[in-house]
Amino acid sequence: xxxxxxxxxxxxxxxxxxxxxxxxxxxxxxxxxxxxxxxxxxxxxxxxxxxxxxxxxxxxxxxxxxxxxxxxxxxxxxxxxxxxxxxxxxxxxxxxxxxxxxxxxxxxxxxxxxxxxxxxxxxxxxxxxxxxxxxxxxxxxxxxxxxxxxxxxxxxxxxxxxxxxxxxxxxxxxxxxxxxxxxxxxxxxxxxxxxxxxxxxxxxxxxxxxxxxxxxxxxxxxxxxxxxxxxxxxxxxxxxxxxxxxxxxxxxxxxxxxxxxxxxxxxxxxxxxxxxxxxxxxxxxxxxxxxxxxxxxxxxxxxxxxxxxxxxxxxxxxxxxxxxxxxxxxxxxxxxxxxxxxxxxxxxxxxxxxxxxxxxxxxxxxxxxxxxxxxxxxxxxxxxxxxxxxxxxxxxxxxx
Length: 400
What we know:
400 residues, alpha/beta, Rossmann fold, Penicillin-binding protein 1b fold, 2 domains, eight-stranded mixed β-sheet, six-stranded mixed β-sheet, 13 helices, globular, disordered C terminus
């Protein structure tokens, strides 16, 4: 059961009404002190009352997960609240990203990319700073949109599919796997005139029944019982993987690849890189794609933020500190591997840096709130200070 009544109570407070009015101004920069207990109450109220995309950046992944779970309590399990987790793999290691983490990332990014489209609710996305800094697909590509496969990202009843083979090839390019039976996100199957597909952002897979070359019905179904659950009439096919070599920007890829200098690497490393780079576009290995994230992806979270977004920075100094610590780890890992001849000079990082991300958000005029915390010894309360380039305002509430 959602607790939205509490959010309306917060919204009725004079300071919150003033806060919401101020947040409607372009490029506003707010500052807020919130005790830990009431952090989800404030964030939930901000999103619930503003009806705008809200993105909260937290210092650590465990902070993001905790806030995400708390927000579902206030807003309900069906609310468009998304967790954008960071891949828990060591930098410059050839390790595959956990499937659940990858699906959560793609779902959150797709929700942001689709914000503002008809019949979509504004998303509330919670991300750790490490997750926000990771380079990713373009918003269009996350939604499955690419000039080469334009017809593959959305199916609806009554639409024609001139070539099923071309459609399935496009889904493969979007990262989907062909399976005998669809059981997990990122898979599709074809049996006669029946197409099953499971997008990463769907609760259940979809069954598309064809009549000749026309879409006859689209239903969601239970993968265990194979029984239909609901008629939907349409399905959007988002990317099923965060690295899509066949669809990446070729000129940017070539430019970054040209910077890779193998001259200091040992013979085994040179051979391995030459083999992997030679097959990266034509026959990519899903187990090593995350390793090449910085070579294949050129976009950041800032590219996903609509102009109407509000970004809440949970303890900005801690965010900057965690981002710097991550950068130090990357540099240390890079230096160690380069000294061993295991990593070439000029190999691109999988992430951007904090200052670059902040500058991108500022240049886009995104409204931000610096959210500080009271210590545990303080009485539960919310204290707000709003400031922009022209004036400063301070408001204090009674204990909540």
